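User: Um, any thoughts?
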Amino acid sequence: MNKVYLEEVDSTNLYAKQNIADFQDGTIIHALSQTSGRGRFERKWIDFGKGNLFLTFVLKPSSDFKSLYSNLTQYLSVKLCKLLENEGLTPQIKWPNDVLINGKKIAGILSETVMSGSALKGIVLGIGVNLSASEDQVSAIKERKVTALNLELNKTPDLELFRDNLCFEFFKDYNNFLSKGFIFIKDDYISRACFLNKKVCVKVFNKEVSGEAVDVTDNGELVLLSNGEKSVLTIGDIL
């Protein structure tokens, strides 16, 4: 595992994409400050400044894109949950990869692919974890309920230790995930799912789809039941 440390950057994912040729497989890019973080569907990632985790994994598993690479965000969400459980917390996952504590979002995960024609140049898998914030900061965000680890633990976690533990967790089973895909983490994922057997509304680009979330497929897709018919969603966000 190679490590790149930055004092400040616009986005660790953007930095990784712009310099993808310079990085070996398994490189991690950690910035102390990130000025223009992004979430899924180009949403702005609201961060709370220094003391929080801004990290990107640079992955080069093959020269061609495989469908299981789309599940890397879910793999990372499970690994983050396990790390939070070691702190005595009970995190949950909202499809596809939101990690929540007490119904409040604590992390954002974004995977982006860099291609050159049909050749895969690499995958940048970014994660931002709220480790340190005030009650006033989190309550000021009106778009969604959010939290930070220091508020849940009543103490400020060690940023470097948290980063190193997350990287260890990620790479510990990474090769097994690459060989088996989502099925390798399916039980772990479902055991932490907060959305199953509930009525949900899913935003898929510019439209919304509603129904009961009844299952997750072996490929990590969401199965919705609506008006007696099942549909399978490969992309989207539960609102």
User: Anything to note?
Assistant: The chain has a mean pLDDT of 93. Helices lie at 12-18, 72-85, 135-139, 149-153, 159-172, 174-180, 186-191. The chain is about 25% helix and 35% strand. The CA atoms of residues 213 and 224 lie 5 Å apart.
